[in-house]
Write a structure and sequence with these properties.
heterodimer; A: 367 residues; alpha+beta; Rossmann fold; OB fold (Dihydrolipoamide Acetyltransferase, E2P); 2 domains; 20 strands; 23% helix; B: 565 residues; mainly alpha; two-stranded parallel sheet; two-stranded antiparallel sheet; 6 strands
Chain lengths: 367, 565
């Protein structure tokens, strides 16, 4: 299948209000600005009700923004209906036409475009081949499994060679194994066709697997935007740190803030962390550290580690072990990978933890 | 339709109570459904002791009767098409034009009126409006010598009377179409009209077919409207059958004519059961998508749709207002002085009819409600020999035109040993077996929504079967009981086609009196009777509707859902 020159998507200060039965007028989306580069896959990630689907539906033209503008390529599409925007949309529940066969479902958009029947059949055949449904043309949607319906929905969206492809939680109706398979396939097709794509999900692992970049949304606003690595290693807020991966959040107070390192007192233990923003002694801060970044060793003579504690719980998960370590009033979640037979520590064992300065992130205290 | 809950349904072999119930029901169905139909069949096919279908064919060979058959089918087809179109307009406006509850309440209230009235109420209003001394033709337009009788007025009157059935059938069908599917078509580049034509309309086809069949059957069976409006120029089968029996005392001829109705009626029944019911589409699969506003009705079209609906609603409102007006003036069209005289007449001379009707409706109501729930429960939850046969037989009297049922009862129960005609018992039996099937279907629908695991949970907690039925199942099917009972009451108050053959000096009905008044041209009392029936039914319906809401009945069991057929 030949490719179309990909167009970027620009969302500029878009807001959408809705009327809540009890709470009155609320912001579903508030001053959201996004830039999706041509050929890129941007994921809107966030918990349910964060405004990600509403944002996507405004890009599609299913909802109208109360404020702001939306551009596809160099065209301002804000006032246009969905049928004038040249998009492909994949719904959470697939929204297949139940009265049409697989072939007619996929051919729908091409027929609307008045394609001549030979060319139409060729393109439908091609795209069904791409999604692995080559011999399914005559099937009715209800005869298909969830995964197959998903593929038909995908084929129907890409066959029209849209300038932008939009996904609304496309995998949430599939079981776990199929989800992983489908997300890889979506990513493969998207790269192959180089279609600019906006993808909505609440599943952080799915987001990390399919995206070039991720925009994390919360309460109608974009809180951070970046690659999966940016978000994981350099979360800007507590919310992002907690939403992407697991994290230990330690409450502390700045003791000394001279130069590029800050010394923070966390429950009596002094930890040093790299940080450049201006802070003063006495400021309340949070330290974020991922469970796998903490080094854990039995509390043997000569062992290193500034925090001394005891294992209060452990969960053996095969390739890794999760330990809950209690040190005074503070507890830590620590993950150790591939411990090997006999290397799993017991509950009650006294241990030392090392929290390296470069593994920690200093976050502002929220609220 | 009803499928038992697979292996979970209990068998009859180890449940004597079930066994006895099934036996009693079969005996009743045999007596009040199968036996009369067999008698009708025998009367049609036999001449005395001999089998002679030739005589029956001779009656049908009469060109007049053939014309009546043709007229019946033509009328039914016209009413089916027009009523479905009108019902679709209302359903589209109600479910997809984005109007608030206020407007919908107006549409619902107006469309409820024809559903709860005697089936010839509109016909009476037509006479008042367009008759020889009609309010519009004579008084407003000053026309003389116009005739209201014939195909056009019968068609118009039946369409107004029966389109609410199409509305109630189509509204849930349209409401169930996932707006996301339409959004999808829009996103693929289709215009609003293309979406409507290629997605919305095809998805509504099974509903449209069903609505058409329901209206076709209703018009085919309608006997009172043509009796009032069709006149001599446009004979139809049910009225011909009635006149054959009451006018010419030719029971056999009437039987043959009513029998000719059986073929199209049965065809409709089969089409509905085996074609339409399997073609409904499910558009919401898996988790429902985001809620979305319907966009396929263009903003400029919304007021147009509403205006059209309100115009139709205005016609209905005018008809009923006219009916009320006719009941409180001395003589509509001649003397418009205010009077309560007609009400005085119906509460003195007509008091017996009112009393009889209320007694019969009062008896039929609980019996019909109970019968509906018991049969529905057996069909949905139990497994026994002949379960499916019972389901079909229990629907027969409901599916057949009332004229057939009435004549069959007349033939079967006129002579000893079962000389029941003229008595209240036979009328009650007729109503119970003819109008309870809606209760049966409501019960089945309700039970199908309830996981048998609920009953198993009760058994698992140590409750006995009887206790489980009383504490779990019974409360769950109570709404269906009241809905079924409500329908039996409405029909007992308003029906005429079957029972007109069964009334006597001893037991008569309001609807029969209204028809008599119409033929005697005492229009005032006819109007007063009609107003009374509508008022009584409205009060009872409102009460039952309230009860159903209090019981949190699901939509499938609401009165509206049931009246829609």
């Amino acid at each position: 299948m030949d490719t179309v020159p990909p167009a970027g998507v620009r969302v500029e200060g878009v807001s959408k209000r809705f009327q809540h039965r009890v709470k009155g007028a609320l912001w579903a989306v508030r001053e959201v600005s996004l830039e999706v580069r041509p050929g890129e896959l941007l994921t809107l990630l966030g918990p349910s009700g964060c405004g990600k689907t509403t944002t996507l539906r405004m890009i599609a033209g299913f909802e109208e923004p109360d404020e702001g503008r939306i551009w596809i390529g160099d065209r301002d599409v804000t006032g246009l209906m969905a049928n004038r925007r040249d998009i492909g949309f994949v719904f959470q529940n697939y929204a297949l036409f139940p009265h049409l066969t697989v072939f007619d479902n996929v051919a729908y958009g091409l027929r609307i475009r008045g394609l001549e029947s030979g060319e139409l059949a060729r393109r439908v055949g091609d795209v069904l081949g791409m999604v692995g449904l080559a011999r399914y043309e005559r099937q009715q949607p209800h005869q298909l499994s969830g995964g197959e319906q998903q593929r038909v929905a995908l084929a129907r969206a890409i066959v029209i060679r849209p300038r932008v492809l939009l996904f609304d939680e496309p995998l949430s109706n599939l079981d776990a194994r199929l989800r992983v398979q489908m997300r890889d396939e979506i990513r493969r097709l998207q790269k192959e066709l180089a279609i600019t794509t906006v993808y909505v999900t609440h599943d952080q692992e799915e987001a990390m697997a399919v995206s070039d970049r991720i925009a994390v949304m919360s309460a109608g606003e974009v809180v951070q935007e970046g690659t999966a690595e940016d978000l994981y290693h350099r979360p800007a807020t507590e919310f992002v740190a907690q939403f992407i991966g697991r994290v230990n959040l330690l409450a502390g107070r700045v003791v000394d803030a001279a130069g590029a390192t800050v010394t923070v007192d966390v429950a009596g233990v002094r930890l040093r962390v790299f940080h450049t923003a201006p802070l003063r002694a006495g400021d309340a801060v949070r330290l974020a550290i991922r469970p796998e970044a903490i080094v854990l060793a039995p509390d043997d003579p000569g062992a290193e580690g500034e925090v001394v504690g005891a294992i209060v719980a452990r969960t053996f998960l095969g390739e890794k072990v999760d330990y809950t370590v209690r040190a005074g009033a503070q507890s830590f979640l620590v993950t150790r990978y591939n411990p090997g037979p006999g290397a799993v520590l017991e509950e009650g064992q006294r241990v030392r933890l090392t929290l390296a300065s470069d593994a920690m992130q200093l976050l502002p205290v929220e609220g | 339709m009803a499928r038992p809950a697979g292996a979970r349904a209990s068998g009859a072999s180890r449940d004597p109570a079930l066994w006895v119930t099934v036996a009693v029901l079969w005996a009743l169905l045999a007596l009040f459904v199968l036996y009369p139909l067999l008698c009708l069949l025998a009367r049609v096919a036999m001449d005395g002791e001999r089998l002679s279908p030739g005589a029956a064919l001779a009656v049908l060979g009469d060109p007049n009767q053939l014309r009546a058959l043709g007229n019946s089918l033509l009328l039914a087809a016209l009413v089916g098409v027009a009523g479905t179109a009108l019902g679709f307009l209302f359903a589209l406006t109600a479910s997809r034009a984005g109007f608030g509850r206020g407007w919908l309440a107006v549409l619902d209230a107006v469309t409820l009126l024809p559903l709860i009235s005697p089936p010839f109420t509109t016909a009476i209003a037509m006479i008042f409006s367009f008759g020889p001394r009609g309010l519009i033709t004579y008084h407003v337009l000053g026309l003389k010598g116009v005739t209201v009788y014939g195909l056009a007025s019968t068609f118009f009157s039946e369409t107004v009377t029966y389109f609410p059935i199409a509305y109630l059938t189509l509204r849930p069908v349209l409401a169930a179409i996932d707006a996301n599917v339409e959004d999808m078509a829009l996103s693929l580049g289709a215009s609003r009209f293309q979406v409507f034509r290629s997605v919305t309309l095809p998805l509504a086809i099974p509903g449209l077919a069903n609505a058409f069949l329901l209206l076709f059957a209703a018009s085919l069976a309608d006997f009172a409207t043509p009796l009032i409006l069709a006149g001599n120029s446009f004979p139809v089968l049910p009225t011909q059958a009635y006149l054959q029996i009451t006018g010419l005392f030719d029971l056999r001829g009437g039987a043959v004519l009513s029998f000719a109705l059986l073929v199209p009626a049965f065809a409709v029944f089969l089409l509905q059961r085996y074609w339409v019911s399997r073609r409904y589409y499910v558009t919401v699969t898996g988790k429902a998508g985001a809620r979305t506003a319907v966009k396929t009705v263009a903003p400029w079209l919304r007021p147009v749709l509403l205006a059209l609906c309100l115009a139709v609603a205005a016609v209905i409102a005018y008809f009923y207002a006219l009916l009320f007006y006719a009941s409180v003036v001395v003589a509509l069209g001649a003397n418009h002085a205010w009077t309560w005289r007609h009400y005085h007449v119906i509460f003195t001379e007509g008091a017996k009819a009112i009393r009889d009707t209320l007694v019969i409706a009062g008896l039929s109501m609980p019996l019909g409600g109970l019968y509906g729930v018991v049969v529905g429960y057996l069909i949905a939850r139990k497994r026994f020999m002949g379960r499916q046969a019972m389901e079909i037989v229990s629907m027969l009297n409901y599916a057949l035109p009332g004229t057939i049922v009435g004549i069959a009862y007349l033939i079967a129960f006129n002579d000893p040993p079962l000389a029941l005609t003229g008595g209240a018992l036979l009328i009650v039996a007729c109503y119970v077996f003819r109008y309870s099937p809606t209760g049966i279907r409501a019960t089945v629908a309700q039970l199908q929504q309830i996981d048998p695991a609920l009953e198993e949970a009760s058994l698992g907690l140590g409750a006995s079967t009887a206790m489980t039925f009383r504490r779990v199942t019974l409360p769950l099917i109570t709404p269906a009981f009241f809905a079924g009972l409500g329908v039996v009451f409405i029909r007992s108050m308003t029906a005429i086609s079957a029972t007109i053959f069964l009334v006597s000096i001893n037991w008569t009905l309001i609807t029969v009196r209204i028809l008599e008044n119409m033929t005697e041209l005492s229009l005032g009392p006819a109007a007063a009777f009609s107003v009374l029936v509508v008022a009584i039914v409205y009060v009872v319906i409102a009460a039952i509707g309230r009860l159903l809401r209090a019981l949190r009945a699901p939509d499938a069991v609401s009165l509206g859902g049931i009246l829609g057929g």
